[in-house]
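dude i think i finally got it to work??
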Amino acid sequence: MRESTVHKSKLLKASEIAAILNISRAFAYKLIKNGDIPAVQIGASLRVRPSDLEAYIESHLGVSNDLWE
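look at this
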């Protein structure tokens, strides 16, 4: 594997995603399962690249929410 293809950041667990987004771990898994946040499967584990989580957050900035209007 070429060095340029190796991502140097740590892959995130669902529990870490939940902590970052301040959501439940179950909801983090739901976002992954629905394909909202891309993930890689390693054995029985799901992991998310930090850049994919950042992209998810960026894509939801400024999204209108009727609860806050």
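The helical segments are 14-21, 25-33, 50-60.
im so relieved honestly
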